[in-house]
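The material for today's practical consists of a large collection of protein records. There is nothing in a record beyond a sequence line and a structure line. As an example, a complete record with its sequence and its structure tokens follows:
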Amino acid sequence: MTGICDEIRPQTGLRPLTIYLAAPRGFCAGVDRAIQIVELALAKYGAPVYVRHEIVHNRHVVEALKAKGAIFVEELDEIPDTAAPVIFSAHGVPKSVPADAARRKLFYLDATCPLVSKVHVETERQHDAGREVLLIGHAGHPEVLGTVGQLPQGAVHVIESVEDALAFTPKDPEKLAYSTQTTLSVDDTREIVAALKARFPRIAGPRKDDICYATTNRQDAVKRIAGACERIIVVGSPKSSNSQRLVEVAKGAGCPFAVLVQCVDEIDWSDFAEISRLGITAGASAPEALVEEIVDAFKARFTAKVETVVTAAEDITFKLPRELRDVPAL
């Protein structure tokens, strides 16, 4: 039904714009679970609740949790001796972290995404089978540090590129296995795996793809809209691997300009002045409210029509830690 405002708006002289919203976008089940763990711990135990590392890579999420009483630290030695809960982030942690927490008798809750935990288990299984483990991922990323830290020092080799795969020299080419970070580019990872398999045909891989469903779905959704868009905005943090990959995927799939912004305030409007087709998506740790603010800002500057392009439905949920299952949903 057309209202009075709709009839008047075309007369304002605003440039017409079609906004394609990629779906799925934004929060995945692992991120949603991690945020819930902090909020439910605050509800059950009260403030403060300590969180090692950013619970997810999004400063808006972190600031909102700080306002509720969460205290974020990088290492456990920043936490005083306390009975307050200590929460490990969704990215996972090396084995030394819970061991140190137990030694100090800290009460901790693990918010590691279950799909990251799956990679930990798979990596340990391959190591226990006597295989040298290659981890495809970005060196220094918290998830990679957590996975490497599941095994003794030197047992895992990080492979960041095809060049790394071609240069790696194994102890025994017949006893190799690979795992991957969960938030990588699907296409780039496929190339690295192909290079490893070409060199080492007997290399063992995961029983099921390590790149998580949410990463794959968000990349597929961006690929669907990229060719139709003059610009694509990815809402997410510069620290977020899956958000950074969405920018790369958008460009690779045919969009001439893709940019990562954390919120509407970071948009350089001169980049969007002459466009008529815009795509918007969000990384797995970006709240939908940030997307809505950006859409509203474009509606204020253009005669905008919004189309949601759906490529997959997501209904996955993960169980909360046992200690929090008795807390009423917030």
Remarks:
- The chain has three domains: 15-27+213-310, 29-113, 114-199.
- Residues 1-11 have pLDDT under 50 and may be disordered.
- The first strand starts at residue 15 and ends at 23.
